[in-house]
Description:
This protein is of the alpha+beta class. The chain folds into three domains: 4-133, Nucleotidyltransferase, domain 5 (2-Layer Sandwich), CATH 3.30.420; 138-230; 237-280 and 289-361, no CATH class. 53% of the residues lie in helices and 17% in strands. The chain has 14 helices and ten strands. The protein has helices spanning 57-64, 82-91, 100-107, 114-127, 138-170, 183-188, 196-230, 232-238, 246-256, 265-271, 296-310, 314-324, 329-350, 356-361, and strands at 4-8, 14-19, 25-31, 35-42, 47-54, 71-76, 94-98, 130-133, 277-281, 284-289. An eight-stranded mixed beta sheet has the order 1-2-8-7-6-3-4-5, sandwiched between helices. The chain has a two-stranded antiparallel ribbon with strand order 9-10. Strand 6 (71-76), helix 2 and strand 7 (94-98) form a beta-alpha-beta unit. Helix 10 (265-271) crosses helix 13.
Amino acid sequence: MAxxxxxxxxxxxxxxxxxxxxxxxxxxIDLHARSLYVCILDQQGDTLLHKEIPAKPEPLxxxxxxxxxxLIIGVECMHCxxxxxxxxxxxxxxxxxxxxxxxxxIHGGKTKNDRVDSYKIAALIRGGNFPLAxxxxxxxxxxRDLLRRRTxxxxxxxxxxxxxxxTTSQYNLPPNxxxxxxxxxxxxxxxxxxxxxVQRNIxxxxxxxxxxxxxxSQVEWLLEKQAKKHQPTYYHLLTTIPGVGRILAxxxxxxxxxxxxFESVQKFASYSRLIKCKAESAGKTYGTQGNKxxxxxxxxxxxxxxxxxxxxxxxxxxxxxxxxxxMSKAKALSALAHKLGRAVYFMLKNEKVFDEQRxxxx
Length: 362
């Protein structure tokens, strides 16, 4: 049975997750879009196989077939790991995903090529030094990626709207206060500029916004439908938080996946980028580090939720004022986001709706 251990550091706090389990064969794959470099070691560390093959399931299965007995396959987390994980699941092969940042820190060396990298991955697995990343389950993975794509397109739409505002200012025209989400507002901008080339530039923005508005409304409906099929309980619980609507609930739901993968609320808060890690040495503190390690989508969701929670909520505004007695407003908002993140962890873990009275008084 595969096990993983969390190696403690000298302060008694937990650090990186390492895969510590013995197998008969250890397979490290240096993964690329068009090719794979495969290395298989035995329990004694002897190289049984070291070969480059096309990135296709059939050649890979043919290559590793003699070593399928107690085989573990590990790859570094990069953009094309999905099909390898699905291949291993279909073939009943144990699969682990390596944390790209920590792997670079552990096995970064002077010499680097595909052959060396595949051997190092296999050696890390065999030696119990393979840093684990979360291999997101196949069942919800495509929906999460679609949600992330939707977020990216919405942000691009905001850039297009900003371009319209900037162009209006460039030509010293009155500020345009219309809501570009409305069809009539977009049509109105079609008669704003005298220069036909400038007007064509704005028309291009409007055409893209029109396409986004039409397509994203359908995408959001599909995402909500999938959420009610994948995790209906999570989705219902998240929408009980004041200010958390459909998109924030979907973002938290699909970025978390399964709340049980987090052993404690502290680990969940760290993964969500809601806490800062002190950099200490020789009893001195040198600020913080590792603030970008974690899930940027959850960081955004909880930051947005904190701001929206304050709207029309006197109790929440009093809580923020209490925080501001000890810190700046920016830090107080971060503290509120952290508090919301902790609440979400226990809500999902215990399957309880949001208790606002308890939240404001605890």
